[in-house]
Amino acid sequence: MIKKIQLYAVLAAMALSFTSCLDKYPDNAIEADKAVNTPDDVNQLVMGIYAAFKDGALYSGNLTLLPDIQTDLVYGVTGNTNVYGDIWRWNDIKPTNTDIEDVYAALYTVVNRCNFLLDHVEAVRAKTTDDDDLDRLDQYCGEAYFARALAYSELVKLFCKAYESEEDAANQLGVVINEHYDNQEPMKRATLQESYQFIIDDLDRAEDLLQLEEDFNPSVDGSLYDTVYFNEYTVYALRARVALYMKNWKEAEEYAGKVIDSDYYMLSSCNRQISSGVSYYKYMWTNDHSTEAIWKISFTVSSYGGALGRVFFNFDQSNVRPDYVPAQWVLGLYAASDLRYTDIFQSYTTAYGLMWPLLQKYFGNEEFQAYNIYHVCMPKVFRLSEQYLIRAEARAQQGNYGGASEDITELHSARYSAGGAVSLNAETAMDVIEEERVKELYMEGFRLHDLKRWHKGFERTPQDQSLDNGSSLKVAADDPMFVWPIPQHEIEAPGSQIEPNESNK
């Protein structure tokens, strides 16, 4: 069943624990009402929430990679170790798939850590008198509400059908909503409409509690870009994404615009160099620092999550043995003047003899490589470029093709050496935006849901040294497997009333 966190006697230890979703009470654990007494104790719980996002099943691993590997963006190659093989082959995905189980469990671990904090913070607030400490508690609650909304948004994206309308969503299955940690809530799926409303309600609370001070000055108080903590603008970024997925074009444009027009962030240019031969855009991937990162997950050489680039290189300091290589059709999308190409891809001769452009942007943080830690980089969960793409799509869907053109042109101005200006119309707008989402967000975990919400299928045809099993595949629009199966152990757990998806059958 959905696993719940427990509070250890040493709260700081829980804050650093992110490798397991079990987090069982040890026999000598202190009861929560005796251990969570001060704002500092609550802060340790917040650190535990942030630490939970380091789990390799989430943004530094499965949650980012699987939705793109499952679709048409990469090919398994001869020599493949069969990692994620069931996912890539599409038709072999089962409700017992451990990679999907891990995503499900890790997201609910985040939810349960948030619930634990929110259930116990009021007792701390009741005995707190210092105004600064009360402000801290508000901040901690805002972070918990945002983290819970983020986790539920990912669960809905992966395990539910696309949102079509309020009426349709009221008749579709959503996810299991847990609002509390301590009480016994039924293990039953809410509707899709209820699930999205819960996310929005949490984001409303988070927005109120994470507001910046009116006199906030980045030059004095610190820049917002490249932050590892939630704030008002991470709320807007997720709100824009959720609104896009709900086809609420007006709100998607509004919230993406709040981020873009804030001037707190700036697209990392491919044309400007931070050092010789290294553009600001490339530096975002090689060193994990960027003016366009709205929220990234903090890694250090002694505390990090999964290795996003491993399946694309498996580098042993001598040879590369990729499990997956980019699809030829993706490589062909980039114009000659599109400087992203050489920063994202680099040609290698693999240990299998295949000469092919590999996914260079996940080769790993250069500072980590100095410690022989390869293919590890900090996930940039929200970037400014996504907000431009959200606003462009929302504007196009409302018939504002001039506004959509401006957004794509602005993105291109930071990515192209020359040209890149576009003029969209009713016939071309969505084709251009769809292609741009592939080029800009390649292997960042968006493709499966994009195809699902656009009601589009895809086709794979064999390319050089691609595996026979999976390289020839035609998937129709609205195939049941666009919605991941609910893990079987959740359905069979004692007391479970969780209904399966069509892909469970």
TrEMBL record:
Keywords: Cell outer membrane, Membrane, Signal. Residues 356-492 form the RagB/SusD domain. CDD domains: SusD. Residues 22-214 form the SusD-like N-terminal domain. Gene3D superfamilies: 1.25.40.390. It comes from the Bacteria. The keyword Membrane applies. Its main location: membrane. Transmembrane segments: none annotated. It is found in: Cell outer membrane. Residues 1-22 form the signal peptide. Belongs to the SusD family. This is RagB/SusD family nutrient uptake outer membrane protein. It comes from Bacteroides caecicola.
